[in-house]
Amino acid sequence: MNKMDVAAAIITNEQLECLLQKKDLGYPWFPGKWCFFGGGIENGEEPLDTIRRELIEEGIPVKNIRFLWQNFYEDRTTINSRNGLQYIFHAEFTGRISDIRLNEGGGFAFFARSELKYVPIVEHDLKVIERFYDSLRNQS
Length: 140
Description:
It is a single chain. With about 140 residues, the chain is an alpha+beta fold. It is built from two helices and eight strands, in the order E-E-E-E-E-H-E-E-E-H. Strands 1, 2, 3, 4, 5, 6, 7 and 8 form an eight-stranded mixed β-sheet that branches. A hairpin with a 5-residue loop joins strand 2 and strand 3. The mean pLDDT is about 90.
C-alpha cells in the first residue's frame, strides 16, 4: 500500500454551495466520481502550501483559507491502494466560475447541500462534506 498525505479544500460560494471536481473516466482513482480540489503533499511541503499551490494551478480564486481538521483515508482499486492523512481546509470562492482553469478532470460544479445525495461523490469526501455542514449547523 502506498502512503500519500493529501490536502483538500471545501470551497464554498456565498450560498454555501460546495465546489467539486469530476474525475475523468481515464483517471485511476474514482473515475467519473466527484471530489474535492486538492492534491498530494510534496516532500518538504506544508499542507497549507499544498492547497494554495493546487488552487492556484486550477485558477480558483479564494480567500480566508483555514485549516479544519485532518483524518485518515484509504483508497483501493482492483490493482492499487493508498492511504494517509487528508488535511481538510475551507476556503471562500471569490471569483466567477469562468475564472477556473481545469487542468485535469472531467468538469466542476457547485452543489447545494440538498443536491449532494444525488451526486456520485468519493465516499471519504462525502463524509467530510457532511461533517462540514453539520459543524455549520451546530455553530448557529
